[in-house]
Fold these 2 entries.
Entry 1:
Amino acid sequence: MKIAVCVSHVPDTETKVKVGSDGKTIDPSGVNYVVNPYDEFAVEEALKIREKDGGEVVALSLGGDANKETLRKALAMGADKAVLLKDDSERDSFAVAKGIAEYLKSYEPDLVLVGKQSIDYDNLQVGGLVAEFLGIPSVSVAVKLEIADGKLKAEREIEGAHEHVEASLPCVIAAQRGLNDPRYPSLKGIMQAKKKPIEEVDAAKAESRVKVLGMKKPPEKQPGKIVGEGVDAVPELVRLLREEAKVI
Amino acid sequence: MSVTILAIAEQRNGEIKKTSFETIRKAREIADELGGSLKALVIGNTINDAAKELGNYGAEQVVVVNDEKLTHYSTTGYTKVVSEIVKKENTGILFLSATALGKDLAPCVAARVDGAVAADCTELKVDDGDIVATRPVFAGKALIDVKVEAPVKIFTLRPNVFAAGEPSGSEASIEEQSVDISGDDLKTKVTEITETSKGKLDVTEADIIVSGGRGLKSPDNFYLVEELADVLGAAVGASRAVVDAGWRPHDEQVGQTGKTVSPALYIALGISGAVQHLAGMSSSKYIVAVNKDKDAPIFQVADYGIVGDALEVVPALKEELTKALGK
Ligand SMILES: Cc1cc2nc3c(=O)[nH]c(=O)nc-3n(C[C@H](O)[C@H](O)[C@H](O)COP(=O)(O)OP(=O)(O)OC[C@H]3O[C@@H](n4cnc5c(N)ncnc54)[C@H](O)[C@@H]3O)c2cc1C
Ligand SMILES: Cc1cc2nc3c(=O)[nH]c(=O)nc-3n(C[C@H](O)[C@H](O)[C@H](O)COP(=O)(O)OP(=O)(O)OC[C@H]3O[C@@H](n4cnc5c(N)ncnc54)[C@H](O)[C@@H]3O)c2cc1C
């Protein structure tokens, strides 16, 4: 199996977001970037499939030089190859997906793994777009995956249930938490990753279609009141919920 | 030429989802502002009766595609249907709810109809004849205003944010259309749906959520959370700490790497309020926190707080609410 895993490079979840001086993107100063948490599930799944069925795992990231750090992490976990689809400009999910799909047209993967969502722009779109650009099916929010005899079975999370999906290969799978437990890179893996080359390819050009007019902080939530301490405060809480908030 | 908005209403087991009413109502409002018209689209099998209900929320015309192969959702099948109807109706604007189905379908349709998606919008307005959407990014730590520049502009609307309003009592007219579903359209097929929460409400669909964290001390104490949720008709949520510990299932996790929710009322029991948890729930309309540490960060976002032991406060709260609600 030829497996491509897409990884994005995102501010970690602790980040306190400040709006940058352009008023449209975040201020990157002091921000710690990491591999997108959902993409660790994607990489792990790719490695598991390779361990079972053999083949090759190539990690892809579209962005600037900084994304190499995230590609190194994928290599340290065990990916065979890493490719940076280079573009320093800002792209929306549509343009990111175009860039990835163009590369994959010549790579011809049997399986493409992405994360459910990139925790920066939270679009949940790259997987579906890449699939359609390649004319192959996709399964989003996957919590279970089995591939046998050229057939793919997956479970995808929907509200209060799982859909059991059958799909043909090649296919794009978007990994959700629960799919597996991502491994930690071993020391040996980290050392080897430092030696593996990262291939650089100019990302195919594509225009963004969702134009950002401005970025702002959400209104600060004012801390409310401490109703009281312990069980004694309960009647007053219930009164407030009924009479002031009117939510019950 | 005036614009037509196409809004997708979603059905499961023949019933239209509440969040679709919200989406239809907002689509109506935007269509009026643009001086355009609105059509709803319902896909499924023998769903005409359910589709008529959409008149209540402002869709006078509903396109229905009935096909036995569409009884269950199929990414490729539904993508085909929506794309065909978008082309047939010559619509430049498509609305969906940002549900599991809407989020899956929107990008696939976008690629096929030469469109682009503003995802998970929490505000939509018309500015100078164009739709400006506001959407949370970085787990709600910032908001961006965006315009979609594409032949087909697609918007997915976050559930529980827009008001469905009162039903008007008018019935929609139904226009059945058929779309050929064959071959490649069935590259993905749903063979089975298994309920994970046995008839329980999902956190993303609930008006009230009662969530528990590590402060509940043991998985055995979660019956307290469940009982309180029952009294309120609420869904049960959880912090990641208790999901990681195996106390609760993954699908209850609220937060940056769990589900984003905005219910009318969110009750956090023994949850510290880590930034990743807050990211998933701070847009709730009212937040109640019970925590024994008065300095817990959850109190920074809570409208009403009780400092105390959840194991004592929760049973008392359940009792008081049972009385108050006359149950
Ligand atoms: C300064 C700056 C500004 C940006 N502004 C915007 C903006 O305004 N709007 C916007 O949508 N994006 C913007 N981006 C790009 C953003 O960082 C993401 O790469 C891109 O938007 C995809 O995120 P998403 O939320 O759309 O991904 P999703 O669709 O949520 O991602 C799903 C999966 O797709 C894969 N994936 C996503 N992005 C990449 C990638 N770059 N390389 C490889 N795999 C990937 C991952 O597997 C991910 O888990 C900007 C980037 C920079 C550096
Ligand atoms: C990449 C990443 C992603 C993450 N994503 C998420 C996410 O999506 N969702 C999420 O929730 N977390 C997430 N986290 C974890 C988050 O940082 C916290 O660790 C987690 O939310 C803590 O859960 P908790 O509040 O239940 O536990 P704790 O932080 O341990 O808090 C327990 C609280 O209970 C109180 N308490 C103790 N005993 C009692 C009692 N008897 N009665 C009342 N109160 C009591 C304590 O005062 C304390 O405030 C993420 C972390 C990382 C690094």
Note: The first helix of chain A runs from residue 37 to 53.
Entry 2:
Amino acid sequence: MNTERLQHLTEDEILSALVDERDLDSELKDHLASCSLCREALATQRQSFSALGTRARKYTPEMVRPIRIPQEPVPRRLHFGDLKPVLGTAVAACLLVAVLYGGWMRFAPDRSGLLIEDVDRLVENAMPVEFQNLLGEELFRAEEDFMEFIIPPLENGDDTMGGPENLKKKDGIHAKHMATITA
Amino acid sequence: MPNGQLSAYDPLVIRALEGDRHAFQSLVDQYQDGVFRLVFSRIQSRMDAQDLSQEIFLTAMKKMGTLKSPDKFKSWLYRIAVNKVRDHLRKKKFMALFTPFISDDNKERQPGNQPSGYSYTQEEMTGPHRKETAQQEDRLHQKEFWEHVKQMTLELSAMESEVFMLRFFDQQELADIAAILNKGESTVKTHLYRALKKIRNHPGKGVLLEGRHP
Ligand SMILES: [Zn+2]
């Protein structure tokens, strides 16, 4: 039986092919391979979108002046060797703190409950009340939230090349978002 | 150099990572046109695009030490550019809430109140007369073109517009777009498909796709 599709590709299918031909169903791929009309339609679409890009480049003005970077060294990538002295100092400091704390705990009266309360209070508000008002931290946070509300971000903010976990998490959020759109 | 085919061990990137300022300046020379075009096509103001491009390379220089994959330098740089543009547009949109009557395209920065955010250099304004007609015609097409691009992007979501521009204006491969936007390739394809469909149905597609001028 001849399974080849007799109908030409629809306009939407041509667009799908334009995005990525490899994603077409095998039936459509076979048709496209054998039908000159559909291949021509695809080539025309591809050509017109490419021409749009060409015009965008043509109509972009020249830069005002070339970009010059300041006369200072580029911050180097850190190697393990760079961190050795820092790590050594940090380990020594940790050991010293552990030894001193151990000695203090052995002889000091049990004030752990009070200490936890102090820490809780500091975590909650490190500043005395009169300074908290002056600092206006709450106001600053509210302003950022307001900006996010007015102009939602594009969904990604960091400039580092994130790992796959990051990608998966963000795609997950996106998938949910897409589901809401299509629902 | 073809797009998306940066050699895995670009010696300039490696040297810049080691703190070589001259190597970084060579990278700037290599990528500045691409970055400037990317920025201009999104914000359509020459002066702002210049300032923002400068800022993008300064940020890239400061953050160079955080680049984990030297073979992805271009995607990493373009990601910084896309994020800077996004921040710029957000700020501009926010400021426009308070200055609704002077919001359009930094009118104060353009001599002769030129449209579409294109600000001309002194040379362009006072060029030889015989060139003027051709230049004016070109400017008209240019103005009209960017006006249509602006209208077109209004129809698209931020992500559709970004994916479309990266693909056709900046000539990036799908995998590179995915890296720039930190998205999966299938997500990028979905947005691109939607963008193409909307543009195909856009009333200004004659000017955009076929270059027709009414
Ligand atoms: Zn056909």
Note: The pocket of zinc ion is lined by residues A 8-9, 31, 35, 37-38 (CB under 6 Å).
